[in-house]
Each structure stands twice: as structure tokens, then as C-alpha cells.
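Before the break, one more example. Copy the sequence into your notebook; we will annotate it together after we see the structure.
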Amino acid sequence: MSQQITGNEHGNVLEAQIALLLIRKKYAQVVAKHIDAVADIAFFVRQYRGFTTLYGARMRLDFFIHHPQRWPDGLAIECKWQQAAGSVDEKFPYVVASLNQLICPSAIFLAGGGYTNRARDWVLAQQTDRLIVLEGMDEIIRWTHAQF
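Here is what the structure looks like once it is written out:
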């Protein structure tokens, strides 16, 4: 009997890959309450809740990354995996608007290919000097290797 993997499980795999890459690049994984104690080293926090959303609620970022030279103000990363048609298309504007109000640059990682072409094109068109959008595991891994 085969087991079906859910989109959430695929999203967790994407996040685990990013975390592993950061660890290999000598970033320390820390919990948010210890950020002030490690501001002089490269670190990351998973499921970071230090910012607010477009609606003023606590935002849960997939990653908050800090590097004293490369990302001194931090880098916010949201991972969006959608393997089959679903609700991610409707979430893109909210995610983009929430990330655009942050004090640090941000990135959206798209994987799975289940979003519509129009939604993908829209989110790619939202890129600025403070928001990067990467699609597909190859592109995400190449970029993260170069940036971290």
C-alpha cells in the first residue's frame, strides 16, 4: 500500500533542504529569543515570528537569516510548495504585500509547479531590489549556494 505525500510534507522537505544547506554553510540554527546574543555570527531561525503581516498579525516566516556581512539587516524567506492546483495562487498577493513591508530584504521560493502560470507570472513580476522570487529546486539551490 503506497502512502500519499501531502503538500505540507513536501513543503517541509523544501524547508529541511534549505536548513541543511544553511548548516553546511556554517550558519547556526537558533531560536528567536536568542537572536540578540548571536548578532555577530551567521545564523537562521525557522518559523520566525518577529514581524507582523499586512493585517498587523504576527507573521510566521519560514526562515529569518542573518549574516554580519551579507545580510546584516536579515533576510526573510517564504517557501511555497504547491504540487497540485490549490490555494497558493490566492496567497501570493498577501505574501508579497506582507514581505514588502518588512525592514529586511526577502525571498519567495516556489516549488512543486501546482500554481497556475498566471499566478507564477504575477509573483515573478513583483520582484524588486528587496524581493527576489525563485522557482524550482535547481534555481533555489543554485541561488542559496551563491548567497550563503
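Helices lie at 7-24, 88-100, 117-125, 137-147. The beta strands are 28-29, 43-52, 58-67, 71-81, 106-111, 131-135. Try to locate both features in your own notes.
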